Amino acid sequence: MEKIFDKIKVVVVSDNIDYRLLIKQLLASDDVVVAGYANCNETALEKVKGLYPDIVIFTCTSQASAVFELSQQIYELMPGCGVILLSESMDLQLLNRAMESGIRKVLSINCSSNELMEAIYKVSLSEKQRLPDDSKIFGHKSRVISFFGGKGGTGKTSIAVNTAIALAQMGRKTIIIDADLQFGDVNLLLNIDSKDTIAELVHEKNAFTIDTIKSFTVMHSSGISVLCAPKSPEYAEYVTGSHIEKIINTVRPYYEFIILDLTPSFNDITLAAVENSDRVFLVTGLDITGLRNVKICVNILDSLQQREKLALIINKEGPSIINVKDFQNIIGLPIGARISEDTKTAVDCLNKGIPFVIAAPRAQISKQIKAFAEKLYRDMA
Fold first, then answer.
1. CB count in 10 Å sphere of residue 372
2. Domain range 142-380, CATH architecture
3. CATH homologous superfamily of 8-130
4. What is the DSSP letter of 161?
């Protein structure tokens, strides 16, 4: 699997859709990934803090005062995160205000791709000097990993759960959020019966803090924290995409890995989770329906400018008329992991409520999941 956390992560803050598309085109580089977009308003800081990028790019139009206020807050609260401003016009007053607000570089909105990329490299390198020597800022080092499948039965929940546990076994502080709100069964795989779920959390609390979220999670014996899906499908309507985004933003500074198990369909919850994820793994088998569904998913996420986050997990790999190389060539995504078919072990462990990395650590699928988790951590370091 190729290294997946070595790119410079960028967030674009702009109310202008045309400017967002322009910046996206200027950042057409293998070294940079656009992690998300935000409007220049009161929610922008929360989103930027949640994603904790290496670089924030602002565009300066009619909201200049808001831009300078936000950049000042980013400079003070987020060491390691540099700010670049693209402006329609430049004068001495603008440059002075930018400097006072912690903005590292001001460029014309009509700058070239090379000029913007050079600024990103220099600012990113310079900002790293502001990180503490003993940097233990989970907000900067944490990673949000989503597991998604275009249809049910791909095994995404099993992979999400076992990956979370493998990370915990490595000493990594990990939380798993069951975002398959109508039919989520993370609790079944972990043999958890929790009275408090994500539905109760958003129904009872108007504002989220790490303490309130923790009070609605369950600590599994493996060491992972679990925020369960609603007990009944009708309670799913309490949870919105905005809730998911706020939960991710709140827990990010306190966990090294935030694992999300997504519903196998596109809705507000899925899109909010994908947009706020650092990496999205599409879980599929080597079959025609899997190929078709993954291709549809990639096309949709590509149109939403999320393609850079995507990678494949080939699950239940066995003899097939479609081989992995052909699958990868057709889809055009890197392979994150290949998990062998071992239905007996997977089903036995599911029925016992004990994940296979715990119940059958010597099984091939357990070794493959552990190798995948180790790769995630190495690429994060």
1. 21
2. 3-Layer(aba) Sandwich (3.40)
3. Response regulator (3.40.50.2300)
4. H
CA distance 161 to 152: 16
Q: Which residues, 6+ apart, have CB-to-CB distance to 49 below 8 Å? A: 77, 78, 139, 249, 252, 253
Stretches in the chain below the pLDDT threshold 50 = 1-4, 134-139
What pLDDT is stored for residue 32 in this prediction? 87
Q: In sequence order, which ranges of 197-240 are alpha helices (DSSP H)?
A: 198-204, 210-215
Pick from 319, 176, 366, 318: nearest CA to 256: 176
**What are 108's strand-pairing partners?**
87
Q: Do domains 8-130 and 142-380 have the same CATH topology?
A: yes
The bridge status of strand 225-227 relative to strand 218-219 is antiparallel
Amino acid at 248: I
Question: 288-303 and 324-331 are packed helices; what angle lies between their axes, rounded to 10 degrees?
Answer: 30
Q: Rounded distance, CA 294 to CA 21, Å?
A: 25
pLDDT attached to residue 134? 41
Query: Is residue 374 classed as helix, strand or coil in its secondary structure?
Result: helix
d(C-alpha 171, C-alpha 230), whole Å: 29
Helix, strand or coil for residue 103? Answer: coil
Q: Rounded to an integer, what is the distance from CA 104 to the centroid of its chain?
A: 26
Q: Are strands 143-148 and 257-262 parallel, antiparallel or unpaired?
A: parallel
Q: What is the pLDDT of residue 4?
A: 46
**How far, in Å, CA of 24 to CA of 37, rounded?**
10
pTM of the model: 0.74
Q: Where are the domains of the chain?
A: 8-130, 142-380
DSSP tag of 150: S
Q: How far apart are CA 26 and CA 59, in angstroms?
A: 14
Terminal Cα distance for the chain, rounded: 16
